[in-house]
Model the fold of this input.
Amino acid sequence: MASTLNSNNSSIERDTAELRRALATSPSLDNNVQLSAIPPILCYCFASILMTVVNKFVVSGANFSMNFLLLCIQSSVCIACVTTVKKLGIISFRAFDWQDAKTWFPISFMLAMVIYTGSKSLQFLSIPVYTIFKNLTIILIAYGEVLWFGGRVTGLTFVSFIFMVFSSVIAAWSDVSNAMNDAIPTAGMGSIHDVKDVVQKLNIGYFWMLVNCLTSAAYVLTMRKRIKVTGFSDWDSMFYSNLLSIPVLALFSIVVEDWGTENLNRNFPTETRSFLFMAIAFSGAAAVGISYTTAWCVRVTSSTTYSMVGALNKLPVAASGMLFFGDAVTFGSVSAISVGFFAGLLYAVAKNNQKKAESRMHSEGIIPLTSRKP
Done:
């Protein structure tokens, strides 16, 4: 009897092994998996480009100064969209809870500052420069994880960081050169006042870019701790982040920004007012699209593929600024985008290699040095 059971068990194991081997080597299955990954990748790229372009369009007005109001409207539209989609049964997230709100409020406040500083950066800098400098946030997050979470920076990752810094230097040099050439006519008779205005605008833009990188890194590192405490899903964090940011942004808008009739007319001219509000509402809905396509991309492919797509996506995002806003296409700007693109790709490969190495060590029962406790 026992021998019969053993024979049956071994037969089942062989059949199971053969089935797995057939599935793994089936070309039709590979093709289906590859084809199923195309729609989420394309949708994520489209949503991120669309979001950047629309935000740049809204804040590019010569007299636009109501960034807090802009972000408050976007967050309100975002909450309306996710609530509607939840009622339709397409997504689900936990109901509002005051204890969760208290725990998550610091994250929501930091996110509001990240988005605000990002919008201010876009107001003064071109899309290619903004996109390239956002790479520096990756470096801050990586070393923040080394300090607070026992993370590790491999040699290849460090090389990618060098290329990121190099691309930022090229972008800044190209940006300053182009701005100076525009301010000073070919004859060299440009006024000192024009040059000062250009330098001041660039200084303001790079200041907001620096603050944005710092706040973005702090936001990601802090959220990593809070998510473990609350157990939030992606939709939970999106819901609470946007909902709790609305009163913060509304308060800052009322206190800091000028709500006088004259200033409102400058920010929202009568001839373009309806279109501007439509663009703002659309950008709020696009934020939902980015969150959904991000989750979709990671679910259908993998986090590694998603990081690779994020690296490759910087090229079309930067190119969108040249296409839609007439950003200068020069040797310096193209070189900066190319180096930044290569740096992002190298970083994705480095993280993929690191993940494989750590998985191999865990499977062999070896505890990585960063995970060992004294």
About this structure: The longest helix spans residues 192-230. Residues 59 and 123 are 5 Å apart (CA to CA). Residues 1-9, 15-30, 369-374 have pLDDT under 50 and may be disordered.
